[in-house]
Amino acid sequence: MALHESALEELGLAPMWVRRGGAHEAAAELAASDSDADVVANEAQPVEVASAVGVEAPVSHETQPPAGVSNAAREPLESREPVRAEATPADAPQARRAPPPAADEAPPFPDDDFAWFDDLPAAPPSDAEAKSNEPAQPGIDTLDWTALEARVSACERCRLCERRTNTVFGVGDREADWMLIGEAPGENEDKQGEPFVGQAGKLLDNMLRSLDLARGTNVYIANVIKCRPPGNRNPEPDEVARCEPYLQRQVALVKPKLIVALGRFAAQSLLKTEASISSLRGRVHEYEGVPVVVTYHPAYLLRSLGDKSKSWQDLCLARDTWRKAGAEGDAAK
Ligand code: URA
User: Fold this and answer.
1) Where does this protein have compositionally biased stretches of type Low complexity (predicted)?
2) Are 251 and 164 in a shared domain?
3) 185: CA distance to ligand 1 center in Å?
4) Is any ligand 1 atom within 6 A of the Cβ of residue 70?
5) How distant is the alpha carbon of residue 235 from its chain centre?
6) What does the pLDDT look like over 133-158, one tens digit per residue?
7) How far apart are CA 280 and CA 286, in angstroms?
8) By residue range, what is the domain housing residue 321?
């Protein structure tokens, strides 16, 4: 540790995180315990000073779905925003200092499910910035399927690339009329590289069957986010922004007649709104010029069987909208 950093640490002013370059070059001045990891897990901006107020309150595990259950299963909650609280001596978990590493030891890097790209801006780079920082690559909006899939699998546009096993690009009929869009890969999807492979995926297949559709037959399935957020946390807005060009390109290539947004997160991300899912259901919206119908996420339906009938209503609206779009398309020919 440089002399001035240890002096800062003495004063309690040392940064809680310092990360530049690749994972192995990462250095953390303060190691967080598991509970401390919760404290920072959803933080959108780095906390520069150990004693800073405004740290995340620990998320109560009583309100969380069991481990491995996607965030989407928490659909009925009106807000999944991280809970912020002023840190007070009584209720704020204290960041614990790790013993300084021996000179020949690798610096401690807390397993906090979260890594900061402190050298990247929160917003996606503009074209001009991108050109100056990256080797020239064709724009995402020009890629064909093969190039797009390759670009996604090599993507390092946000921190989610660090912990993924596989990117989850999308699956199904690339000329489908129906495009279903979920939130982000969960653990199983991350392992297998395919969207909706768990229990929620089975329910989704049944929902499709009820419409005489099947995964891969006139249906293409993708997610807003292509990499698994660690611990199934909510994707951050900058992660959505950095991933969106891939989804936009998928929509442009599939040219679906209809998009079904699965769950609140997908709906809000596509429609750029914070409106509740109940207010978004029952109407036809638009994304990239394509009609969008919003319904509950299958993971939520697994836990709230009573809402399956509402979801069926949504699917009927989707089918009517698809038929109408097909009829209009035929009339235009
Ligand atoms: N939930 C999603 O939203 N997408 C998946 O691929 C899996 C679970």
Assistant:
1) 87-97
2) yes
3) 5
4) yes
5) 3
6) 666 889 999 999 999 999 999 999 99
7) 12
8) 143-332
